[in-house]
Amino acid sequence: MSPSSADSTSMLRGRVLAFSAILLAALNLRTAVTSVTPLLDQLGQTFGFGTTMTGVLGMLPTASFALFGVTTPMVARRIGLERTALLAMLLAAVGLLLRSMAGGVGSLLFGSVVALAGMGIGNVVVPPLVKRYFANRVGTVSTLYITVLQLGTMVPALLAVPLAEQAGWRVSLGIWAILAVAAALPWIALARRRPHPDPLDTAADPAAQPHGKVWRTPLAWGMALMFGMTSLMTYSMFTWLPRIVVEAGATPAFGGVMVAIFAALGLVPSLTMPALAVRLRNPFPLVVVGFSAFLIAFAGLLFAPMKAPWLWAVLLGIGPSTFPLALTLINLRTRTPAGSAALSGFMQGVGYAFSCLGPFLFGWLHAISGAWYLPFGFLLVCALVLISASWVACKPQKLEDVW
């Protein structure tokens, strides 16, 4: 075999390994979130907490994603993208196991934070890894990894209550650590293939070095608010949708099914948004579709929650179409993996910081009013911020040209 053939074979193997690693990582980015929300009532009875702690647990994912979203680009510059992804999967596995062994509220929170730290790091490093290994297939690979991410969101929600009934809540919470361990394996191999320290693919082009101030660009803030408001509304619904339908007369198991449908319908925009985004110079019309779905679903849950619950869940699933759109725009609005990592960290760090109070405020407004009018009014304001910010984020431009 000639040296060039050996190099081609090695490159192909690296891309295949990277492809499997990215998809396995995506499968693990939400398991700590949706595996616990259908069990919050049971955990509340076990550990003796009420609405306030439920709101705190609902706020933890976005708060953790915000903190680790901001810090992940610095970690990636020090140890490399592949090693950072490996760290993410290991933290996720350890945290999920710790949470399943919790003996009280404190250890439940600690295990959740560790697991969510890993998932927050994974959120940020996956888009620049897609750009590094599949720069000529951004739309296709983005569609696949976001779809797998949605599967990893849906399946834990669907299985949480049945697993808890059959094997106990500890098994229901801890079983997902197996997936995280499996996802760590290909990252070990990829980390060995990359140089250390990682140049983030910018050494050959000094102009591409991440020297700009991302936070000074309208693009970054538009994407952060677009992503943040989407996350706020999505995680508010993940946390409180079961309570809304239970108060309307449904069973807790039905509440879990509603969350699963909500997550499952997220597959539709995940399959379509990246492919459409790469074909549209300005994808803002796609935002209008998600915005309209959110408004109709909110009105239905507020005024007639049990009249057409399946329809409201379907529309809720279509609403967060700006989530896969924003993840795809990270690579469409940057030129290099370094720019992608910087924009990904800012968008997700700041976006999740805005959204982390969503589940808490939604529950607090319900507690002080005794009804759902104020909480859904709050989400309406957030939806208006979403569509305004998306107008800025969707304009054709490149981060490296404006930062």
TrEMBL record:
Signal peptide feature range: none
Keyword Transmembrane tagged: yes
Tree of life domain: Bacteria
TM region positions: 48-72, 84-102, 108-130, 142-161, 167-190, 219-241, 253-272, 284-304, 310-330, 342-365, 371-394
InterPro entries documented for this protein: MFS, MFS_Cyanate_Porter, MFS_dom, MFS_trans_sf
A Pfam match: MFS_1
UniProt keyword terms in alphabetical order: Membrane, Transmembrane, Transmembrane helix
PROSITE patterns, per the entry: MFS
Domain (Major facilitator superfamily (MFS) profile): residue spans on this chain: 14-400
UniProt name for this protein: MFS transporter
